[in-house]
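FORM 7B: Structural annotation worksheet

SECTION A. Query
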Amino acid sequence: MASTVTTAFTEQYSALVYVLSQQKGSKIRNYVRNETIQNSRNAYFERLGVASAQEITTRHGDTPLNEIPHSRRRLTPADYNTATLLDNADQLKMLIDPRSPYANAQAMTLGRTIDDIIYDAALGTVATGQSGGTSVTFQADSRSMNGDGTITALGTLATAETETIITLAKVLGMMELFNTEDVDPDIAKYWLVSPQEIADLLDIEEVGSADYNTIKTIAQGKVDSFAGFKWIWSNRLDLDAAGSTCTRTLAWAEDGLILGTAEGITSRITERDDKNYSIQVYSEMSAGAIRLDGSKVHEALMLVA
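SECTION B. Predicted structure
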């Protein structure tokens, strides 16, 4: 019996790079208004208010001059980048060429950053006025659904007191809020929630079988519609001001948020002579976002399990 046969055994190594579980890029950039910013430090977006009319009560009377209010909001893009060095000695020890997977991983990271930019802008303070010198907070511009399902007045922060999970009443309450704000029903509406809200929707008894099938596709990670909203789940949502009891879910109409891109996600693979001629995989982008119309952007607090 040959005792040295084990020297002939071989080992198999994968020539592929396995990407660990992660959000692969942006989930929401295609569901907001996208604008390109060129050769500008800031971009301004004009807003036109509501016109008024009056009854004609006299013959040959003066023509009324009713001014339509104008306003503007400022978007300032910021720059983001990431880089990875790969030594020549490292490459000699690999069966794979990791340069392309590295660039893909960086692109996915910057894509996730886009979601953070949009989400933070939706719930944050926006610069207004002729040159953006005035700040408008979220609560002064938009409405919130408290933890118990009630709606705040403008200027009032949402509270998590007597908080509840998502319910059919909350869903219908948010639909009513958009209708109360006279948001055009033909404009697509979206609701960004955590995975827990998707699971809770599945437990709503009032949801019929057809709607149940719709929610079921959402639970499988797909974007689909229910009660007038396209639902998107994310693990990147903030908690409420108290910091522990409720998730700040976000509902919006598509043109209520703007993503401004000065430079899309760009990757470069170059040789660094100052780093022993290592290969550098580098990616960057320049982007920003604003809440253009507060009546089209609202939050809803949902109880964290």
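SECTION C. Observations
The longest strand covers residues 257-272. DSSP finds six helices and 14 strands in the chain.

SECTION D. Sign-off
Analyst initials: ____
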